[in-house]
């Protein structure tokens, strides 16, 4: 039955008979928003007349939910009109919901027909209104620049984001104009480059973990003392709303493991400190994806009034084999 078809997951391929059934009852399905993605899958896009009718029906169809719009941005749908429609639906999402899907939306840029697509323009425009979105979009795009097959595509998006942000007046964040905002994000990359350099030096130290910790603190206090107190505050890559002013050498350490990840204590401009793990040698993108799925499931469960009291820690890949993780101090189960 058609109701059974509508419950199929997006990954299930429709049979020839199922496609014919959906096409036959297309007019009666227009009030059923869940049916649109299934209907668009049964269209023979190489048939000009059929494609034209499908696009006309799509515009008159009951508007789909934001989560269903994501399916229309998958590689299955190549029609620019369909993908533009999906972006128009995404415009209804608030910043919090958009951030939940941002990782996948950046990956969806691979399937666009042009470098300056509707999706690319949409992501940039929304990021100009929210510094957290801008910071994460910049990082997600920057990490993909290492992929030779799509480097041009992502570099184009990166340039559009930079160009538009540099033109911003002091509207996103009261006392910061676009130039200062962009520079605060660029300095994040400079910081991670310096941390990678520190990790190389520390790994080359012969001896036990304690000797490596001493070398780390020596570097932070001596040769790289500019990391102790930044010339200008930097937006935390993990929490862009937080300004960090430097690293406290005495409170920073190294974990005893093969990759010797750094545990860094950053001073916060508003007072206090935050601890971050910086790791190189692992594909942090995998951790990032898992945590994103947990966060998304938590959001969906809360929408059904089921709060499991989850607090996913923050993860951000800053390269193909490096990244930052929020440090969570150990607690007893009773706490």
TrEMBL record:
Its EC number is 2.7.1.137. InterPro entries: ARM-type_fold, Kinase-like_dom_sf, PI3/4_kinase, PI3/4_kinase_cat_dom, PI3/4_kinase_CS, PI3K_accessory_dom, PI3K_accessory_sf. Residues 248-335 form the PI3K/PI4K catalytic domain. GO terms for molecular function: 1-phosphatidylinositol-3-kinase activity; ATP binding. GO terms for biological process: autophagosome assembly; endocytosis; pexophagy; phosphatidylinositol-3-phosphate biosynthetic process; phosphatidylinositol-mediated signaling. PROSITE patterns: PI3_4_KINASE_1 (PS00915), PI3_4_KINASE_3 (PS50290), PIK_HELICAL (PS51545). Keywords: ATP-binding, Kinase, Nucleotide-binding, Transferase. SUPFAM superfamilies: ARM repeat (SSF48371), Protein kinase-like (PK-like) (SSF56112). Pfam families: PI3_PI4_kinase, PI3Ka. SMART domains: PI3Ka (SM00145). One of its GO terms (cellular component) is phosphatidylinositol 3-kinase complex, class III, type II. Residues 1-164 form the PIK helical domain. This is phosphatidylinositol 3-kinase. It comes from Eucalyptus grandis.
């Amino acid at each position: 039955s058609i109701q059974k078809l509508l419950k199929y997951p997006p990954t299930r391929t429709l049979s020839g008979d199922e496609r014919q059934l959906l096409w036959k009852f297309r007019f009666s399905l227009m009030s059923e928003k869940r049916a649109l993605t299934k209907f668009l899958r049964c269209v023979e896009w190489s048939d000009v007349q059929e494609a034209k009718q499908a696009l006309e029906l799509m515009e008159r169809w009951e508007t789909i939910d934001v989560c269903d719009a994501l399916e229309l941005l998958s590689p299955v749908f190549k029609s620019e009109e369909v993908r533009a429609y999906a972006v128009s639906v995404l415009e209804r999402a608030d910043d919090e919901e958009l951030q939940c899907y941002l990782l996948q939306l950046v990956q969806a840029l691979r399937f666009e027909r042009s470098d300056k697509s509707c999706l690319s323009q949409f992501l940039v425009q929304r990021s100009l209104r929210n510094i957290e979105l801008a910071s994460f979009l910049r990082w997600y795009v920057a990490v993909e620049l290492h992929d030779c097959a799509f480097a041009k595509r992502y570099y184009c998006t990166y340039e559009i984001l930079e160009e538009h942000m540099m033109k911003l007046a002091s509207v996103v964040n009261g006392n910061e104009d676009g130039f200062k905002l962009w520079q605060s994000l660029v300095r994040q990359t400079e910081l991670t480059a310096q941390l990678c350099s520190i990790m190389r030096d520390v790994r080359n130290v012969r001896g036990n973990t304690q000797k490596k910790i001493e070398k780390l603190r020596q570097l932070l206090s001596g040769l790289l003392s500019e990391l102790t107190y930044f010339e200008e505050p930097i937006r935390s890559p993990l929490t862009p709303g937080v300004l960090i002013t430097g690293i406290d050498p005495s409170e920073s350490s190294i974990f005893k493991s093969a990759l010797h990840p750094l545990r860094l204590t950053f001073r916060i401009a508003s007072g206090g400190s935050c601890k971050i793990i910086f790791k190189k040698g692992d594909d942090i993108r995998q951790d990032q994806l898992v945590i994103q799925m947990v966060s998304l499931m938590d959001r969906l469960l809360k929408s059904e009034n089921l709060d499991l009291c989850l607090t996913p820690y923050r993860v951000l890949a800053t390269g193909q084999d490096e990244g930052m993780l929020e440090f969570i101090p150990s607690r007893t189960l009773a706490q």
